[in-house]
Amino acid sequence: MTELLTGWITHQRWFAGKGRPIDDLTVESDVELSPGLRHLIISVRQAGADDRYQLLLGSGAEESARFKPAHIGDGYYDAAYDAELTGTLLQAMASGRDLGPLRFRHLEGTEIDTSLRSLVLGAEQSNTSLVYGGTYICKLFRRLTPGVNPELEIVTALARRHSTHIAQPYGWIETDLDGEPTTLAMTQEFLSNANDGWALALASVRDLYASLNPSAAEAGGDFSAEACRLGMATARVHHELAAAFPTEVIEAQEVKRMIEDHRRRLALAVAEVPALGAYAQVAEEAYQRVTDAAREMPVQRVHGDYHLGQVMRTTSDWVILDFEGEPGQPIAERRALASPLRDVAGMLRSFDYAALHLLADHPDADGLRPRAVEWAELNRASFLAGYSAGGGHLRPEDAVLLRALELAKAAYEVIYEARNRPTWLPIPMAAFQPDR
Ligand SMILES: Nc1ncnc2c1ncn2[C@@H]1O[C@H](COP(=O)(O)OP(=O)(O)O)[C@@H](O)[C@H]1O
Ligand SMILES: O=P(O)(O)O[C@H]1O[C@H](CO)[C@@H](O[C@H]2O[C@H](CO)[C@@H](O)[C@H](O)[C@H]2O)[C@H](O)[C@H]1O
């Protein structure tokens, strides 16, 4: 079995250790959830470090043949794809059952319809999501880090405050890893009539590029009213987070330490992507300006990896998803208090991404670039106006911090793109312009 899993796991989209040989793979936990369905936690050793992953294991030659994409071998398959078996997860959450070391729970006062059948969501990335009857989405966290997942922590806290900007949580699955309660999966309301912000923004950019009208504000698919509404929703969620979790005001000294940390990360990004070295001075100068003017700074829980792909427009307003922080960071860091402007900076970067990404293969890229810049500027400004109008704290003197946080995010994106989508690398690189 371990040999089989070793061969299979390296081809999975969510496997974080691609490209490095697996030295050892062990099954750490193996629990039968229902006849034919097992829950496995496996530990993978690569270059002396261990990573844990979870897997729903189905067995049976006939079933395995039916779920070709989920085929593991020897009659075993990834049972996340088997709707005949995944109902067990909903049923166990609904009844609040313990199955061996696994605890299935639902949010107090919620009812779960256990008759719904699941489908794996096409956009699988670092996790696997099961959509039950277009009503619930159950996200299985594939790579496991000990601790309560910040997504579960935040969404349940905001649900208790009746936030209208989150997808209603229903239930979760947990176990103990290294003595810590650890989230394995989370079930939320599936927003079946919503579009994600990235798709909506790209539709607007596409419309602008195709239109004869050269102005972003006057083109048919103008996004700026939505960008403004998104800014308002962001400010409201920041208020809700500040009310639900502790907040602090950190001293100027602490702000300087934060900037030192960004400097270290920039150096790591340059080491990994040497071409960034030519532009690093732009970030250095922005960081220095924050250090020179360092003052007290309010910090609180934030989203942590805020971009257009994490927000969905429903028929009534914007809903924010995936409060998990930056994937790959330790949980303590993802839960750490930070300036809410970090999220604002993340979304500003996303407007640049949306504007520039369609230019990559465009035959008239040079001619369209001024429109791209105008689109990004208009929507960035609208988002900021909405953030202020929604009660977000944004003073003129925050511009220096915001610029530094944007460049810090761009440095993170340089590494992300170099590792995952090298052809997208020019997008974050373009953020390092001295004249912005
Ligand atoms: N509650 C939801 N309702 C509808 N679609 C969702 C929901 N949660 C996630 N999605 C869809 O799944 C995509 C990926 O979700 P996300 O939580 O960002 O996963 P990952 O952590 O793997 O990036 C989103 O862009 C969205 O299209
Ligand atoms: O959504 P995830 O939590 O997996 O976040 C990671 O992947 C994102 C890409 O899917 C990445 O976001 C970057 O690309 C987006 C366009 O695809 C863009 O809107 C964002 O602004 C940009 O940062 C994110 O950084 C990464 O953590």
TrEMBL record:
UniProt pathway annotation: Glycan biosynthesis; glycogen biosynthesis
Catalytic activity: D-maltose + ATP = alpha-maltose 1-phosphate + ADP + H(+)
InterPro entries, sorted: Aminoglycoside_PTrfase, Kinase-like_dom_sf, Mak_N_cap
Superkingdom, taxonomy of origin: Bacteria
Domain Maltokinase N-terminal cap: 8-82
Keyword hit for ATP-binding: yes
Aminoglycoside phosphotransferase domain span: 124-324
GO molecular function: transferase activity
Keyword Transmembrane: no
EC number: 2.7.1.175
Record-linked Gene3D superfamilies: 3.90.1200.10
Pfam families for the chain: APH, Mak_N_cap
Keywords annotated in UniProt: ATP-binding, Carbohydrate metabolism, Glycogen biosynthesis, Glycogen metabolism, Kinase, Nucleotide-binding, Transferase
Family in the record: Belongs to the aminoglycoside phosphotransferase family.
SUBUNIT field: Monomer.
Protein name (database record): Maltokinase
Source organism (scientific name): Streptosporangium lutulentum
Source taxonomy: Bacteria, Bacillati, Actinomycetota, Actinomycetes, Streptosporangiales
